[in-house]
Design brief:
324 residues, TIM Barrel, two-stranded antiparallel sheet, 14 helices, 44% helix, 14% strand, globular, binds nicotinamide-adenine-dinucleotide, flavoprotein
Length: 324
């Protein structure tokens, strides 16, 4: 057992979170994560309507008795979803932990705090983390430049971002971005984090509800095979390198606007990648950490391995450095 402020305050066995992943955070994966003793998050906007989210929460409860959370991300979007209705669905379903992301959490906190829902706010800079703490979130998940999805615009990797956050914040910190194994977990704890968040690593597990060909691609790809799209639009996203993401980078670098790449980047097209297994069909998310992933274990094998090896690392290699 690895005990931290996060495991104590959030009542989970292991200091490991599976955070929001659009199209991936569904009941099969989240329940497997919960059953392994880690904290999984359904991704609210993966469900087409708030009513579908209510059904997905119920489906997840059929698969696990353990607690799980829901991610609700507010980012620039082609068709703005009814965020308030999704929040109502989350609260009315009795969810106790929410991961907010993508923008200032004030609007989200106003709905979740009065209902007693704990909020973990995912952000990408110390200043945003401090703002979230001041607003009253219960923890922050701070995402280094290595991460999949939206790394922000400052490009600060976890090795600097996590200890900077630890120096400034009083609430528990989840280190996110670039973590896939026990080495990442132990390093994050040493840097001052109270737990880790993993996305890409959980995408590549047996229970992850995406096509096997995408998982296969993640095991083959190295750490250099990602692209940063939307950089000139200040909505940077790290995605798998493929013909579509490279075309988007080229067009935006040449001065194109969002409308010129809208068809290429549409989430509905990226979703086809996960469903059909053709990794060249659209944009899909992957972090640099894919370079560290070379198998497709079950979630339970993965979590057991990480926690076991973390303990061995602390008691073995690290203890030996001080003669223990
Ligand atoms: P989408 O099809 O609306 O947009 C595709 C991509 O284009 C997204 O990365 C989006 O941020 C970006 N985008 C849209 N309009 C933009 C604009 N005007 N300027 C710059 N960039 C723009 O989104 P989607 O991929 O279908 O996602 C559906 C919903 O899920 C959206 O509301 C999105 O914010 C959200 N989402 C959640 C997560 C998560 O992990 N929880 C990750 C990504 C997206």
């Amino acid at each position: 057992m690895l005990r931290t402020r996060f495991t104590e305050e959030f009542g989970v066995e292991h200091p490991i979170v599976q955070g929001g992943m659009q199209w991936v955070g569904r009941a099969e994966l989240v329940a497997a994560v919960a059953n392994s003793g880690a904290l999984g998050m359904l991704t609210a906007l993966t469900q087409p309507t708030p009513e579908d989210l209510v059904k997905e929460i119920a489906r997840c409860r059929d698969l696990t008795d353990k607690p799980f959370g829901v991610n609700l991300t507010i980012l620039p979007t082609i068709t703005p979803p009814p965020y308030a209705e999704y929040r109502q669905a989350i609260v009315e379903s009795g969810i106790r932990v929410v991961e907010t992301a993508g923008s200032n959490p004030a609007e989200q906190l106003a709905a979740f705090q009065p209902a007693g829902v704990k909020v973990i706010h995912k952000c990408t800079s110390v200043r945003h983390a401090l703002k979230a703490q001041q607003l009253g979130v219960d923890a922050v998940s701070i995402d280094g430049f290595e991460c999949a999805g939206h790394p922000g615009e400052d490009d600060i990797p976890g090795l600097v971002l996590i200890p900077r956050a630890a120096d400034e914040l009083d609430i528990p910190i989840i280190a996110s971005g670039g973590i896939a194994d026990a080495r990442g977990l132990v390093a994050a704890l040493a840097l001052g984090a109270d737990g880790v968040n993993m996305g890409t690593r959980f995408m590549c597990t047996a229970e992850s509800p995406i096509h096997d060909a995408v998982k296969q691609r993640l095991t083959e790809a190295d750490e250099r095979e990602t692209e940063l799209i939307f950089r000139p639009l200040r909505n940077t996203a790290r995605v798998a390198s493929n013909s579509v993401s490279r075309e988007v980078v080229e067009k935006l670098d040449a001065g194109a606007g969002f409308e010129d790449v809208r068809e290429l980047v549409a989430g509905a097209r990226g979703r086809e990648v996960y469903e059909r297994g053709d990794t060249e069909l659209g944009i899909w998310s992957a972090g640099m950490v894919q370079g560290l992933i070379d198998d497709v274990p079950t979630v339970d094998e993965l979590v057991t391995r990480i926690v076991g090896q973390a303990r061995e690392l602390i008691e073995g290699r690290l203890a030996r450095t001080i003669g223990g």
